[in-house]
Amino acid sequence: MKKHFRLYMIILAAATTLGACHKISVSPNSLYTGDVFPTNDEQFQSVIGTIYTNIRGHYPLTFWFVQELPSDEAILPSYGGNWYDGAGYIDLHRHSWTKDHGWIGTAWSDTYGIVGLCNQTIYTFRTAPESDAKNTAIAEIKTLRALAYWELLDMFGNVPLDTVYPSPGVQEKAPRAQVFSYVESELKAALPFLKTGTGIATYGKVTRWMAQALLAKLYLNAQVYTGAAKNNECIAACDDIINSGNFAVEARGSYLNMFYPDNGPSNKEFIFAIPYDPATSNGYLFHGRYDLNRNLGIKYRYSGATPGNYSMSSIIMNQTSGNGLKNTKPSGPRATLSGFYNAYFKDDANDIRKDQWLVGPQYWPDGNPIKVATTKKGYDQFYSGSDGSASYIYDLYIDSVISLRQSVSALDLGNDEIAWNMGIRNIKFYPDANSASRNQNNDAPLFRYSDVLLMKAEAILRGGAATNGQTALSLVNMVRSNRTTSAAWSSVTLDDLYAERGREFTWECWRRNDMIRFGKYESAYGFKTNSDTYRRIFPIPTRALATNSKLTQNPGY
User: Fold this and answer.
1) Is 494 left (phi over 0), alpha (psi -120 to 50) or beta?
2) What is the pTM of this model?
3) Nearest to 528 by CA among 359, 342, 345, 337
4) pLDDT for residue 312
5) Residue 366 neighbours by CB distance under 10 Å
6) Which ranges of the sequence are coiled-coil (predicted)?
7) What is the mean pLDDT of the chain?
8) Which residue, among 194, 104, 192, has the nearest Cα to 144 in the 3D structure?
9) Which alpha helices (H) appear in 300-416, and where do they start and end?
10) Lowest-confidence range among 5-14, 168-177, 429-438, 536-545?
11) DSSP letters of 478-540?
12) Hey, how many other C-beta atoms are within 10 angstroms of the C-beta on 282?
């Protein structure tokens, strides 16, 4: 099915050119002006495609970093100064970021860039004749704008509401509750006009079900955002999706396949996914680049790697060129924390979700250990013997424990084989063997049906009324029965549900959101001890304050 989606990706790539920071500066009037305007769905989609392209560029880097690295799920330490990058990654882990933090600033500018493009595109459509296609297109754009504003209120709290084009000028921050109400009203108003179909025609695009999933997520977090719970409203939004009959929980045997490079429109669990394709000008989704251990490039065929003329089990890996490894080896800096892995993935040997992790001794497919050639000093930079340059071959072992061997303040592990083999690695978004670049073909889900079921379960546990004969326990077991062959649960608590969400949505950008809602964000984990509650929202970036004199900084910053 993936190949049939290639045309959509080409349209998106052609619609705009993205720079390194994933920003755009394109006037929609360059496509349709004056008496020239879109009149049918295909023409409207050709303009809306620029918005999707920006979302596609924003998600795998900026959004991932600011949602995952502050959580207990992921860490990106330093390696002998490599990947220190001005402490940008480690400050996210330690909750020590400031208003000058680069990724937080990019999250603000990226998201407001999406808002601005939505406003401009709606303005472009103002002269188009009234039609069902126009109504659907505008509802689609407003839903994407609501998605951007949900992200802004989630990350920054009180933010300016800029909803028209041309912009009337700089604006003061609107209270978080007002932004919440705006997102809610925009989504509810869009629902009657949005497409209800599923499959290739609507894959990767806004539908009624995507809007309802976003509404459910908004309502589930209402207590955090506004101080007032909306659990019954969350349940109603979930029920609309459930009662549609359009979606299903992926079976245990194919759970991991949901995230493989050949995933796509045939997947019944994806409600809204962001499509990626390395054949486009910049395909994005760099998970293989960041997550795969540097000595596993050949095994997973990273970036066009091949085993050359040898059987894979006879290869001895090294950190130089050769061994059939083409292009570049994986960067490999990202890992998970042993506390997260041990809490959620060690106890149930029957849970398929444990197979998304690489930890311990590593083997070729035929069962032989993967061997790595280096020197004694290359293996351990602190080796003090006189024969440091002597060759040294070892069996690859990924250590679950991360040790700050070089610098505690810089979260630096060192720059040797020991350091680069520290930290459990995630391959949920499985490396793409068919891509000759660092980009991957895996589509990334933002909303899945299993999330809808678990959101409804949580809303019931938080006091919402059960509906359709579904209890919190039955909903959780609907998911778990498709993930493990172990016995169904006989009871469920909020802590149980929190753990289940950790197992189910690893690496999918929900952990920060979940930790805040469950009151876990101020806990100590990894190398993070900061318990400041004001860090539940990020600071207003310095460059935003410099360009808008009406902005005020968030408390604590």
Assistant:
1) alpha
2) 0.92
3) 337
4) 55
5) 8
6) none
7) 90
8) 194
9) 338-345, 376-379
10) 5-14
11) HHHTTTBSSPPPS---HHHHHHHHHHHSTTTT-HHHHHHHTT-TTS-BTTB----GGGGSPPP
12) 17
Residue 431 included in any domain: no
**394 and 365 housed in the same domain:** yes
Tell me, yes or no, whether 238 and 297 share the same domain.
Answer: no
How far is the C-alpha of 287 from the C-alpha of 280, rounded, in Å?
Answer: 17
Q: Looking at the structure, do residues 140 and 182 belong to the same domain, yes or no? A: yes
User: Is pLDDT larger for residue 12 or for residue 118?
Assistant: 118
Number of folded domains in the chain?
Answer: 3
Judge contact between 493 and 196, C-beta under 8 A.
Answer: no
Pairing of strands 360-361, 397-398: antiparallel
Predicted pLDDT of residue 19: 30
- Is 224 found in the same domain as 212? yes
Answer whether residue 145 shows pLDDT above 80.
yes
Is residue 438 within 8 A of residue 303, CB to CB? The reply is: yes
Report which of 159, 180, 182 is spatially closest to residue 553, judged by C-alpha positions. 159
Q: Which of 420, 417, 396, 426 is nearest to 298 (CA)?
A: 396
Has residue 150 got a pLDDT over 70?
yes
Mind listing the pLDDT tens digit for each residue in 203-242? 999 999 999 999 999 999 999 999 999 999 999 999 999 9
Kindly state the tokens that stand for 70.
Answer: 């502050």
| Amino acid, single-letter form, for residue 175 | P
d(CA 238, CA 496): 20
Which residue shows structure tokens 């999706």? 241
Pairing of strands 316-318, 371-375: parallel
Of the residues 457, 482, 499, which one is the last residue of a structural domain?
499
Residue 154 · residue 66 · CB < 8 Å: no
Q: Which residues contact 312 (CB under 8 A, 6 or more apart)?
A: 298, 299, 364, 365, 366
Residue 398, φ and ψ in degrees, nearest 5: -90, 115
Residue 528 has pLDDT above 50, yes or no: yes
Say how far apart CA 315 and CA 320 lie, in whole Å. 13
Q: From CA 199, how far away is CA 72, in angstroms rounded?
A: 35
DSSP letters spanning 272-312: EEE---TTSTT----HHHHHS-GGGTTTTTGGG---TTS-G
Residue 9 neighbours by CB distance under 10 Å:
24
Final residue in a domain of this structure, among 368, 392, 426: 426
Residues spanned by the domain of 116: 12-194+527-557
Tokens of 92: 């996210």
Q: Read off the tokens for 87.
A: 């402490």
User: Over the stretch 335-360, which tens digit does the pLDDT of each residue have?
Assistant: 999 999 999 999 999 999 999 999 99
Structure tokens at 500: 């289940």
* Token couple for 413: 């592990």
Task: Using the predicted structure, report yes or no on whether residue 327 has a pLDDT greater than 80.
Answer: no
Tell me what pLDDT residue 33 has: 53
Domain membership flag for residue 49: yes
List of residues 6+ apart from 324 with CB closer than 8 A: 298, 305, 306, 307, 308, 309, 310, 315
Mean pLDDT of the 519-533 span: 98
Contact 16, 212 (CB under 8 A): no
Between residues 37 and 291, which one has the greater pLDDT?
291
Distance CA 452, CA 456 (A): 6
